[in-house]
Design brief:
This protein is an alpha/beta fold and 427 residues long. It folds into 3 domains: 32-95, no CATH class; 96-274, Rossmann fold; 279-316 and 343-382 and 398-427, UDP-galactose 4-epimerase, domain 1 (Alpha-Beta Complex). The chain is 32% helix and 18% strand. It has 10 helices and 22 strands. Strands 12-11-10-13-14-15-20 form a 7-stranded parallel sheet, sandwiched between helices. A 3-stranded mixed sheet has the order 5-8-9, with no helix packed on it. A two-stranded antiparallel ribbon has the order 1-4. Strand 14 (212-218), helix 5 (245-265) and strand 15 form a beta-alpha-beta unit. It starts with 17 loop residues before the first strand and ends with a helix. Bound molecules: uridine-5'-diphosphate-glucuronic acid. Residues 179-181, 218-220, 247, 274, 276-277, 288-289, 292, 304-306, 311, 313, 347, 381, 384 line the site of uridine-5'-diphosphate-glucuronic acid (UGA). Its cofactor is NAD(+). One of its GO terms (biological process) is D-xylose metabolic process.
């Protein structure tokens, strides 16, 4: 389905045609279809059977992504007979805003090839800023930002933030760190090192360049919370030696460092405590619940609920998070701010919702599911928080930010994204 045909209504029943807003002297508005054209699309066009493998032959295979969307083109061509792809950079990049030099920011995004980072990068690029992405590609992937490679406003650097990095910049979004429990527990020592050394290095850079520094912290700093919902002044309930401690304590010490540099050295800091977020470009195999459930349902596999499914989470769509991050960065708020959606579900109910939405999208597209998927129960991971919901009063008062996307709308779009990936053979 062309993405321009997808109509999305926000929590108040208003159609969402753009994301972002003009606030704190920074206009972050972008038409939603411009963003969609970057993720709800094929990465390549397919050569016709018997076509010669000739990457220089641009003409007939030139993929044009113009259906009601920003006009840009890809020359990457898939040759089914040889099972090979000829990659080139885009022949024409998506149009970006032309900003006066005084308005154009030099922005560093660590972890910019990850799920959250790549959406932030899309937004900053479309808005006309100069963006440098640092990523070690442990969980991030070049393909999430490949559509910008070669653009004069864009730079992609393979670098691990545990090593120092020097660059002149105005703003640093420090997102680098694996965020999914199986990934961050895969090498716990490295996760702690990334949180501590990575944040130390980036704060050092911010101090030297006088750049404003925003860190992506997490709801995990509250641990398995005894206060519900969680406001920012709750100190948390974290097991310091448990399986999740590498991430939870890593982010807690990263916050401590951030406020240390703020108090001692006057570094201009912003701290976003991000609650469960989902959306296109989430690694389908990263083990988090939203990607697991959708991919399982699309493949006709049973949905795996851990524990008895009574634990709760509150799910926010990626565009709301990016709005919140940009808003926080450009505001004067130096205290930690929860960025999340208050719509709370038990994981058991959430499995039912995902199943229903996948079936709805399949019915709309005329797909015949291979079988009716069931919900099955597996062991609950250690220290899995029982409840989680953000208190977003501070974000509302200080940033005038509130999530706009309903969970249902976000899930529908994500199902379409994974369906496109499956059709393309990359899932
Ligand atoms: O997605 C996120 O944004 C968050 O993901 C994780 O936190 P967690 O809440 O444990 O996220 P999931 O792994 O998606 O799990 C959510 C719940 O679903 C359950 N789950 C997960 C996967 C699955 O297949 N089935 C299932 O029931 C988990 O046990 C947990 O109770 C990270 O630790 C956070 O830093 C991150 O912000």
């Amino acid at each position: 389905m062309p993405s321009s045909a997808v109509k999305v209504l926000d929590k108040n029943g208003q159609e969402i045609t753009s994301v972002g807003f003009d606030r704190f002297g920074f206009n972050s508005e972008v038409p939603i279809d411009d963003l969609r054209s970057l993720y709800l699309r094929s990465h390549y066009s397919s050569a016709k059977p018997n076509d010669e493998l000739n990457p220089d032959d641009e003409g007939p295979h030139h993929a044009q992504f113009t259906k009601g969307l920003s006009p840009y083109q890809s020359k990457s061509i898939y040759y089914p007979e040889h099972n090979s792809i000829s990659y080139t950079t885009l022949a024409r990049f998506p149009p970006v805003k032309l900003l006066a030099p005084s308005q154009r920011k030099r922005v560093l995004v660590t972890g910019g090839a990850g799920f959250v980072g790549s959406h932030l990068v899309d937004r900053l690029m479309l808005l006309g800023h100069d963006v440098t992405v640092l990523d070690n590609f442990f969980t991030g992937s070049r393909t999430t930002v490949s559509h910008w490679v070669g653009h004069p406003n864009f730079e992609l650097v393979r670098h691990d933030v545990v090593e120092p990095f020097m660059i002149e910049c105005d703003q640093i979004y420090h997102l680098a760190c694996p965020a999914s429990p199986p990934h961050y527990q895969f090498n716990a020592v490295k996760t702690v090192k990334t949180s501590f050394m990575g944040t130390l290095n980036m704060l050092g850079l911010a101090k030297r360049t006088k750049a404003r520094f925003l860190i992506s912290s997490t709801s995990e700093v509250y641990g398995d919370p005894e206060v519900h919902p969680q406001p920012e002044d709750y100190w948390g309930h974290v097991n310091p030696i448990g399986d999740r401690a590498c991430y939870d304590e890593g982010k807690r010490v990263a916050e401590t460092l951030t406020y240390g540099y703020h108090r001692q050295d006057g570094v201009d800091v912003r701290v976003a405590r991000i609650f469960n977020t989902y959306g296109p470009r989430m690694n389908p195999y990263d083990g988090r619940v939203v990607s697991n459930f959708i991919v399982q349902a699309l493949k006709g596999e049973d949905l795996t609920v851990y524990g008895d499914g009574t634990q709760t989470r509150s799910f926010q769509y990626i565009h709301d998070l990016v709005d919140g991050l940009i808003c926080l960065m450009n505001s004067d708020e130096t205290r930690p701010v929860n960025i999340g959606n208050g719509d709370e579900f038990t994981i058991g109910d959430f499995a039912e919702l995902v199943r229903e939405i996948v079936e709805k999208v399949q019915a709309e597209d005329g797909d015949k599911p291979s079988r009716q998927v069931q919900v099955v129960y597996k062991a609950l991971p250690n220290d899995d928080p029982q409840k989680r919901r953000p208190d977003t009063t501070r974000a509302k008062e200080s940033l005038k930010w509130q999530p706009r996307w309903t969970v249902r709308m976000g899930l529908e779009e994500m199902v379409r994204y994974y369906k496109a990936k499956m059709a393309e053979g990359s899932l």
